[in-house]
Amino acid sequence: MTTIKDIAKLAGVSYSTVSKALNDSPLVKEDTKQRIFAIARAHNYRRNLLASNLVSGRSRLIGLVFKTVNNPVFGYLANELHAALAKEQYYTILTWAGASIDILEDLRVGALVYWGDLEEDAQLLSRFSESSVPVFVLGNNSPVPFPCLRIDRKRGILSAVQYLKSLGHQRIGLVGNSQEIKTQAFKESLKEAGLPFRAGFVLPGSTTWEDGYRAVKNYRWSSDSPTAFLGVNNLVTRGALRALLEDGVQVPERLSLIGYDDLFDMEHAEVPLTTIGPPLDDMARMAARTVLQLVQRQTVAEETWIEPVLRVRTSTGPVPR
Fold first, then answer.
1. How many helices (H) and strands (E) does the chain have?
2. Dihedral (CA of 74, 80, 86, 90) sign
3. Are 39 and 103 members of one domain?
4. Are residues 141 and 283 in the same domain?
5. Among 41, 137, 241, 297, whose Cα sits 20 to 30 Å from the Cα of 196?
6. Sequence-ordered list of residues with C-beta below 8 angstroms from that of 205, at least 6 positions apart, any chain
7. How many degrees, rounded to 5, is the angle at CA 110 between CA 108 and CA 115?
8. Are 161 and 273 contained in the same domain?
9. Within this chain, do residues 120 and 18 fall inside the same structural domain, yes or no?
């Protein structure tokens, strides 16, 4: 295995010069730095990141902590966050919440980034509070004792409801009832829009494709049924759309459908889906910027908000006559 000493000998420079060059120090002349980089590449040199962290006192490792990645949104966000940090020469390690946090701390990560709502997990909240490294939280519904990037889900759902109302829809339903924050936002949005809330228009279901599919399949249609539905996430909405089409319900001619979360595949569904959700690319860039500030021990805002964006496609239309 090639070492820094080997590279120093081949380049005809000191050990410390090679070390500084590999850490992109401005103290090393650019031509010398590029010569060292070329030798390192030619001999397949790999830096010992942990050793480098210990020597420099800085870490270029960032720990991404998720409770689950069963929704494509999580994978997409992790990928975009990784890409944004990689541009600044930081490396990400993706892991699941629990004992893995200890491992990330042992690896001397510069920060921990968590996606989710910590109010649902007191033990995890306590563990993060004890962490020896900075913590940043994405997507939490309630205040946390860490810097965070919050999504204004209420405003997003209100935008969807108001848009459907502008198309003439008066009876609007919700597919999925396992996310209380969205169910409550849906109720409040209907009230603010001057539309009635009916418990029977909230179809029971959790957060998977199958939940959306079964919710629609089990629904008993009548002349008083909703003329539009909002799905609680991208998977539920895609499952609901499949069930509607199988049952001969034309979208949007007979029923309009909006999905929460805007992923690229929503545009390529059987009927391109109108969506409401935070712009994930912007969210990743904002998160990366804050994480870098935390690693560099800069002052950051306690809370930053991002607003969901409505993207109109062909799954929504005027209320049927």
1. 13, 12
2. negative
3. no
4. yes
5. 241
6. 175, 176, 177, 178, 211, 212, 214, 215, 232, 236
7. 110
8. yes
9. no
Amino acid at residue number 244:
L
Q: Are 73 and 280 in contact (CB under 8 A)?
A: yes
Whether 55 maps to a domain, the answer reads no
**CA distances, 96 to each of 114, 131, 175, 179 (Å):** 9, 16, 28, 21
Read off the tokens for 248: 């001969």
pTM, two decimal places: 0.81
| Sole residue written with tokens 């929460």 | 260
Residues 84 and 186 in one domain: no
Q: How do residues 199-232 score in pLDDT, each as one tens digit?
A: 999 999 999 999 999 999 999 999 999 999 999 9
User: Please, are residues 288 and 88 in contact by the beta-carbon 8 Å criterion?
Assistant: yes
Residue 69, token pair as written in the block: 């990645």
Considering the domain boundaries, does residue 70 fall inside one? Answer: yes
pLDDT digits (tens, 9 = 90+) for 101-149: 888 888 889 999 999 888 778 888 998 999 889 999 998 888 899 999 9
pLDDT at residue 52 tops 80: no
pLDDT value for 108:
83
Structure confidence by residue, pLDDT tens digits, 147-157:
999 999 999 99
Q: Is the pLDDT of residue 61 over 60?
A: yes
Helical ranges in the chain per DSSP H:
4-11, 15-22, 30-42, 49-56, 72-86, 100-106, 122-129, 153-166, 180-192, 209-217, 234-246, 264-267, 280-295
Q: 229 with 240: CB under 8 angstroms?
A: yes
Better-predicted residue by pLDDT, 69 or 300: 300
